[in-house]
Design brief:
- This protein is α/β, with parallel strands linked by helices.
- The protein is 48% helix and 14% strand.
- The chain has 17 helices and 15 strands.
- A 4-stranded parallel beta sheet has the order 3-2-1-13, with helices on both faces. It has a 4-stranded antiparallel beta sheet with strand order 5-4-9-10. Strands 7-6-8 form a 3-stranded antiparallel beta sheet, with no helix packed on it.
- Helix 2 packs across helix 3, helix 12 packs across helix 13 and helix 12 crosses helix 15.
- The radius of gyration is 27 Å and the shape is elongated.
- The two termini are 27 Å apart.
């Protein structure tokens, strides 16, 4: 038995979840957590809502809600979605809990004391009308490269140039369309460049997927000092004097939520020191599940933050980041009306149906898609036609001819022995797939086992053999072997389809 820490990317409390989010991080994480528990490992599966940041403040103001009221809505909505999908977190928390503030400030002070933080006065775009500095996404203006008038705050959609928002010509607020001006403000920067060589050496030791490792190395090669604070009243405040109105950037505090939430879980378990067994032990295996858009933060920035402070926090061992799941070939988008309402979906379909489909089409190395036709095929051809067919014909035959009891077996024929060996071999294959985060291969192998069982049943023809009294023992042997297959199927399917 070993100790395994599993975290899934913290969903941002600024909108609902869709199947793309589930396929990217939460289903793979849950499947691995359920598998690890089956293997008798000690597991802590931790997640929670990411609840700070400018988008939340702006949208809350639009809705006429307090910031806390606004994030409360999505915290509870996310929890409901995860329950509908049978995601088995050991603890699901939120970054607005008091313990998170303490951890974030402690890590900052450690980085500061170790010389990795510096103060800088920098010009930023300020809205006099709104009385605040605006982040890139809330700014538009004239592209400094091609002159396009509707350029975004950090990128031009016409010429694809990237730049700082302060380089925009005639910048205005996307919210009020009022003109913006440059205004000096003091911020604190984390010197990521201090960790470049340490990060590259650390990444070289990882056997991650090629796309994940290459993406991470690219960022590590180009690390530079990044601001970790912003001007706002909504966030974890700086633990320094005369810094009112300065809070940590959400990307800085959010990953530290994995630690603060594990501490909270340990306290709730009545074992307040338990978190140290997971975060301060080199023996722990740490697996972090994210989507590809979160790779830089989890493969470079978060590890560097941990490298620069005093406690020996565990850094991620495995980072099985996934690509994107599309909806009928296009990205999910609530603003464009291109999404599936999850709560309406579950009024008609069952949790295990979509879990199986998303596992079978997991976007592990390239983008995949949700298609209604493919979903129908997965349910009808696989779950009913293969898995359900083997269960139904075996158990119906058992009830009819063995009074529902498991029959004794003896004198197995070669075909029976071969089938039992196949069950064992395929089960071992599935175990290896789960252990290497190969969700798609595991789902396919589960259905392979069901198919092999149906082929065996067809070849043995117990419906014919039962008519001859002299062949009854062979029928019992057939049913016994099919029950062994169903037992194996129940176990290997459980991480993907826990309810069935």
């Amino acid at each position: 038995m070993s100790r395994i820490l599993i975290t899934a990317a913290l969903p941002y409390a600024n909108g609902g979840l869709h199947f793309g989010h589930i396929a990217g991080a939460y289903l793979p994480a849950d499947v691995y957590a359920r598998f690890s528990r089956l293997m008798k490992h000690e597991v802590a599966f931790i997640c929670g809502s990411d609840e700070f940041g400018v988008p939340i403040t702006i949208n809350a103001e639009r809705m006429g809600q307090s910031f806390q009221e606004y994030v409360d809505v999505y915290f509870h909505e996310h929890q409901k979605t995860f329950r509908l999908l049978s995601i088995s977190f050991d603890h699901y928390s939120r970054t607005t809990r008091p313990g998170h503030k303490k951890i974030t400030q402690e890590v900052f002070l450690s980085l500061l004391n170790n010389g990795h933080i510096e103060e800088r006065v920098v010009p930023q775009l300020y809205s006099e009308k709104e009385g605040r500095f605006l982040a890139d996404r809330y700014v538009k203006g004239e592209c400094p490269h091609c002159g396009y008038l509707e350029a975004r705050g950090d990128e031009c959609p016409k010429c694809a140039a990237s730049y700082e928002s302060t380089e925009l010509l005639n910048p205005v607020s996307k919210i009020t369309h009022s003109p913006l001006q440059l205004k000096d403000t003091k911020h604190w920067f984390l010197r990521f460049d201090h960790f470049k060589q340490q990060l590259l050496k650390w990444l070289d030791q990882k056997s991650w997927k090629g796309n994940v490792k290459n993406f991470a190395r690219f960022y590590a090669e180009n690390v530079r000092a990044r601001a970790i604070t912003r001007d706002s009243t909504w966030g974890v405040p700086l633990p320094l004097s005369n810094t009112e109105g300065k809070v940590f950037y959400v990307w800085f505090d959010a990953p530290l939520g994995y630690i603060s939430m594990t501490k909270e879980w340990a306290e709730m378990m009545g074992r307040p020191e338990l978190w140290k067994d997971f975060w301060l032990s080199s023996e722990t295996k740490y697996v972090q599940f994210i989507g590809k858009d979160n790779i830089p933060f989890h493969a470079v920035f978060f590890p560097a933050m941990l490298m620069g402070q005093d406690l020996p926090y565990k850094k991620v061992d495995h980072l099985p980041a996934n690509e994107f799941l599309l909806l009928e070939g296009k990205q999910f988008s609530k603003s464009d009306g291109w999404f599936i309402d999850l709560h309406l979906f579950f009024d008609r379909y069952e949790c295990d149906q979509i879990r199986y489909y998303l596992a079978l089409h997991a976007p592990e190395t390239q983008d995949t898609e949700f298609s209604w036709d493919l979903f129908q095929a997965a349910c009808n051809d696989d779950l009913v036609g293969k898995w359900g067919n083997l269960a139904n014909r075996t158990l119906t035959f058992l009830q009819r001819h063995c009074e529902g009891c498991i029959p004794a077996y003896r004198d197995l024929m070669e075909i029976d022995q071969t089938f039992l060996k196949d069950i064992k071999q395929i089960t071992q294959e599935i175990t290896a797939h789960y252990d290497s985060f190969s969700l798609k291969k595991a789902a396919r192998a589960v259905m392979k086992l069901a198919s092999v069982g149906n082929v065996y049943f067809n070849e043995k023809k117990p419906w014919q053999e039962i008519k001859q009294k002299s062949n009854k023992q062979d029928v019992f042997n057939t049913l016994y072997c099919c029950l062994e297959a169903l037992k194996a199927l129940a176990l290997v399917s459980y991480p993907i389809m826990p309810n069935k």
